[in-house]
Amino acid sequence: MSSRYHYRHRRTRPPFRHLVRAAKLLLAVLLAACQHDLGAPLEVSSPASLAIPTQKPEVPTQHMIAAAHPLAAEVGRDILRRGGGALDAAIAAQMVLSLVEPQSSGIGGGAFLLHYAAKTGAIDSYDGRETAPASALPNMFLKPDGKPRKFFDAVVGGLSVGVPGVIRMLEMAHREHGRMTWWELFQPAIQLAEKGFAMSERLATLVKRDKYLNFNAAGRYFFRDDGKPKTAGTVFSNPALADTLRRIAASGSEAFYEGVIAEAIVETVSRAPINSGGMTLADLAAYRAEKRPPVCLPYRQWLICGMGPPSSGGITTLQILGLVQRFDLAQLGTNTAKSVHIVAEASRLAFADRNVYIADPDFIPVPVGGLLDQGYLALRSAEISPFKAGGRRAPGMPGVGAVRFVPDSSEKGYSTTHLSVIDAEGNAVSMTSSIETAFGSRLMVRGFLLNNQLTDFSFLPVRDGAPVANRAEPGKRPRSSMSPTLVFDGGGRVIMAVGSPGGSRIIGYVAKTLIAALDWGMDMDAAIDAPNFVNRNGATELEKGTELEALKPALEAMGHEVNLLTRGSGLHGIRVTAEGFDGGADRRREGVAIGD
User: Fold this and answer.
1) Is the four-CA dihedral 343, 346, 351, 357 of positive or negative sign?
2) pTM: predicted TM-score of the whole model, two decimal places
3) How many CA atoms lie within 13 A of 59 on its CB side?
4) 161-211 pLDDT tens trace
């Protein structure tokens, strides 16, 4: 592996340690923007602090992983059993997900990762978001008449493909936190790709439903010779991916960003039969993973930390929690009209700010401190009526220096994955990765699918003569809603790792799960499986077929426009309890949480 490092390294350390109480946590956030130590290492064998005892039998006490496919979770657990750390398990599991859940994530996409090191108390935040090639233009998704193209007219083909970031990000994190060798972590996925695996029900269903997949290498991979989609239980191998992973395992990220793999990516994108793109070898070679400051906020007696820009997920989730903090959600009740109303109103305000202020921080000034300032959140929270919906909200003014762009609500994709890991030493990983829509651009190269993340940019670069913050530009990262999250108690011990797929609804899914666990006292499974409700500064969306449907009349009487939706989350989380680990995997998908 080459000794060259392909990352910009940003790391600051705070002037304080051993956070104990919420007041100290608040001071820590305001002074250090959450790039901080979190005190003594967690002893997993007898975790202290906040715990809701679980009644589940055979509670794991050593380590746990929650991931979107049983094979990925099993590989991650095996890595933990062999002495690997949380980061090692996450890398091995992600490589398997590239094979068995290709519609959701993979080495052709991007990711965000939070890592907590129990020994030092440090949180590291890794940005593996895709970047736009040098050929990208602000109007790249406009029709000749200046109007935006229909979403899937832009998705399919090479134009939507961003430079993938997963491999460089994981290599960066591995250099800093890996225990096992890079080569070892790829072997389970390589062996599985060669041996073959059974197609899951969910993958088979998505292949059957997709209208755009049956062309080029993807069509040949997912469909039979007679043109019909492969069915659940079909065992098929992926020797091309095995070869690709073997090269990366042996030579590191340079095997992906230079040489035959990079050449194949460029050729596939530039010669796509639909919407050919302008990605070059120089674009791939220039890609850099980033370390970003995590964003954190005290919530009651806990500290919640998430991913900062270019993801909007961390800030917006934290804003929702900060806005509801003055309300006693436990007293208002679990999934009642009153509690759902309060959270929905907070979400309106948070999304109003998100759609104006958050984009790639290397291109626009994002007022992170202002958006999470306690005084600002208190002023915004005062706008919430306990009895009446506020309708569409205008953005606030988070500080005198905040630059306000025009509103934009991008991100249509839903096919993403999340995994959570906590190891025996208390190190934790919360990682969300994606290729954007299901099957991404539908372009397959050397056994993996390429993303369509550039459609996360605003299709309209200008509105009413003013610029949109999330407009496409060369080298820019599109705004994301991915929300990998870590939760700490007052003693600085990690007590939860959680996240979800779901496009911009991810923010609502994660906020709901945190509230269900922390305010309503649910265990991890129950908090994840609790009905979803989301408001993105428009209609209040309730999960169809759940107890929330009964709240529709009451919410409408309060002034809400209510929509019932079946689109689901894919939450995966781990919580530390007095007995050990309490894991949860979303019943809406096919993942598992397993440990020892």
Assistant:
1) negative
2) 0.90
3) 19
4) 999 999 999 999 999 999 999 999 999 999 999 999 999 999 999 999 999
Strand 110-117 relative to strand 64-67, pairing: unpaired
Residue with the two structure tokens 């052709």: 108
pLDDT band for 408, please (50, 70, 90 cuts): confident
Is residue 546 part of the annotated active site? The answer reads no
User: Quick count: other Cβ atoms within 10 Å of Cβ 79?
Assistant: 28
Contact 508, 348 (CB under 8 A): no
Residue 338 CB neighbour total at 10 angstroms: 17
Contact 30, 374 (CB under 8 A): yes
Q: What are phi and psi of 417, to 5 degrees?
A: -140, 155
Give the C-alpha distances (Å, rounded to integers) separating 424 from 259, 346, 491.
39, 37, 18
> What integer is the mean pLDDT of 227-249?
96
Measured from the Cβ of residue 538, the count of other Cβ atoms closer than 10 Å reads: 15
DSSP state of 375: H
- Kindly provide the residue ranges of all beta strands, DSSP E only, lying in 278-349, ordered along the sequence: 289-292, 295-299, 302-306
Radius of gyration of the chain (CA): 22
Evaluated on CA atoms 247, 248, 249, 250, the torsion sign reads positive
In the chain, the percentage of residues whose pLDDT exceeds 90 is: 84
For the stretch 133-152, pLDDT in tens is: 999 999 999 999 999 999 99
**What are the Cα distances from residue 322, in Å, to 29, 289, 338, 349?**
13, 30, 17, 11
Phi, psi of 529 (to 5 degrees): -80, -10
Query: Helices (DSSP H) in 33-165: which residue ranges?
Result: 70-81, 86-100, 151-155
Q: Sign of the C-alpha dihedral, residues 588, 300, 334, 537?
A: negative
Residue 422 near residue 86, CB atoms below 8 Å: yes
Out of 2-16, 178-192, 491-505, 533-547, pick the least confident.
2-16
Tell me how far apart the alpha carbons of residues 245 and 2 are, in angstroms, rounded to a whole number.
17
At 400, is the secondary structure helix, strand, or coil?
Answer: coil
What is the greatest pairwise CA distance in the chain? 66
Selecting among 131, 244, 416, 540, the annotated active-site residue is 416
Quick check: 590 and 73 in contact, CB under 8 A? Answer: no
* 148 vs 83: CA distance, rounded Å: 51
3-class secondary structure, 259 = coil
556-562 average pLDDT score: 98
Q: How confident is the model at residue 401 (pLDDT cuts 50, 70, 90)?
A: low
Pairing of strands 494-499, 7-8: unpaired
Contacts for 457 with CB less than 8 Å, ≥ 6 apart: 132, 141, 410, 470, 471, 472, 476, 478, 479
Q: Give the number of residues written for the chain.
A: 596
Interstrand relation of 540-543 and 444-445 (parallel, antiparallel or unpaired) = unpaired
Report the alpha-carbon distance of residue 126 to residue 113 in Å, rounded.
5
Partnered with residue 463 across adjacent β-strands are: 466
pLDDT at 405 (0 to 100):
77
Half-sphere exposure of 472 toward its Cβ, with a 13 Å CA cutoff?
26
* Placement of tokens 């608040």 in the chain: 26
Report residue 338 as tokens: 């009153």
